[in-house]
Amino acid sequence: MTDKPSDSPPQQIRTAYLVLGMHRSGTSALANLLALAGADLPRDVMPADEHNARGYFEPWRIAVFNDRRLAAAGSAWDDPFAALAPAPTDEDAWREEALGLFRAQFGRRRRPLLKDPRVSVLAGLWRSVLEAEGLALRVLIPIRHPLAVAGSLAKRDGFSARKSVMVWCTYMLAAEAASRDLPRAFVDYDALLEDWRPQIAAAEAQLGEPLPALTAAAGRKIDAFLSTELRRNATGGDLSALGPAGEMAAGVLDWLNAAARSESPDRAPLDRAAAWLADQKALYGDLVSPVSADRSLARTALADAEGRAAFLEQTVEETRQEGELRAAFLEKTVEETRQEGELRAAFLEKTVEETRQEGELRAAFLEKTVEETRQEGELRAAFLEKTVEETRQEGELRAAFLEQTLKETREIVATLEARIQSLYGTIGEMKDHIDSLTRTCEDLRTHAGSLEIQLKASQAAVREAAGRLEDLMEPG
């Protein structure tokens, strides 16, 4: 026996796109490209500012949460040892809060796009959240030269190049380690700005599937968004001047560039860099991480306030513009309704007059029709009366004819019955005659048998007499 198939439609698999990697390394540009190609942005997107005029395309509420979670572990987003910080004892509570935030930001959207560089160093927490939602994961990691990242962070945050490069190593190592077992693609940020199409085609090949809605129209929007203007800092430089930190970063960068070319490089440079960072944490972590955490708490509070203010300002402006548009629309609607009412009134007046005239014509037509129907009825009644009389006379004639036919039929039946009786008598006489002939034939057969016996006896007597005669005639 086979199981009865389910009547419910198969549940569609939801896919989450994760943009991992270092701050200021092209995560925002790549996130917007994915959004234009069909991925779903969160509800509350971090607004643009002077540091990123085209927008961050990340949920600012989740970014604030991630800063709080890093601070709870005694770390911060700019801590070179953020990925090595142990989870706090109340990690389950943080995970529940993260799950609630994710659901509030994305609901049941089919292709949620989660972009916040901090997720790279909190990958364990966020992977458990996404897997709890039953999401299939696709990871994209932009690659930008660490000195270009350092230049951007120096302008925005005043960081030293050595610190920025160490933080870059931490984020890129964490992003690579967290995505090894997932479909992922490494994307060269500078090449993406030069010509994004071959870079995205290579990324789709690495992911094993196309982006959900990379149409021609989406391509035109991406063309308008991406440009080399986004590349405001030097694209390269000599890392050796930074000592061991630069040497480790150079090895990681070479490995990432090889991975972006779909090669399979040896992970030894990654392992050496990870071990070097672990050694540095053992030596300096107690000094660096608390300072980063304290600064981060202050920046987080300020960023949260600024984010809320910017979001509210944007909401107020959008509401004001919507109100103005709605008022203009209502004014236009009122005028159109008034004009439509006047036209409708004129139309109804014309319709009433036409209806009145049509009613008079229809009344005259109906009166004529009634008269014609009355005359036709009288003619039809006379015709029916004549038809009834003719039918009655025809019925009387037919009845007389049928009565005569019935009488003649009865006489024929009586004659046939007499003839049948006569035939029955003749048949009886013929049967008696046949019986007499049968008896005569039997008598003749008996007499013939007797004669045959006599003939045989006579023949025997003749043969005997002949024999005797022959004997007498023989000589003596």
Question: How is this structure best described in words?
Answer:
- By secondary structure, this protein is mainly α.
- Helix content is 70%, strand content 4%.
- The protein has helices spanning 27-36, 60-72, 91-106, 118-121, 123-132, 146-157, 161-178, 189-194, 196-207, 216-225, 244-260, 268-473; strands at residues 15-19, 113-115, 136-143, 184-188.
- A four-stranded parallel β-sheet has the order 2-1-3-4, with helices on both faces.
- It is elongated.
- The mean pLDDT is 84.
Describe the structure using short key phrases.
mainly alpha; 4-stranded parallel β-sheet; 476 residues; 12 helices
In short, what is this structure?
It is built from twelve helices and four strands; from the N terminus they run βαααβααβααβααααα. With 476 residues, it is mainly alpha-helical.
Strand-residue proportion: under 5%
**Overall mean pLDDT score?**
84
Q: Please provide the count of β strands.
A: 4
End-to-end C-alpha gap: 121 Å
From the spread of the alpha carbons, the general shape counts as elongated
What order do the helices and strands come in, and which of them pair?
Blueprint: E1 15-19, H1 27-36, H2 60-72, H3 91-106, E2 113-115, H4 118-121, H5 123-132, E3 136-143, H6 146-157, H7 161-178, E4 184-188, H8 189-194, H9 196-207, H10 216-225, H11 244-260, H12 268-473
Parallel strand pairs: 1-2, 1-3, 3-4
Helix pairs in contact: 1-10, 2-3, 2-12, 3-5, 6-7, 7-11, 7-12, 11-12
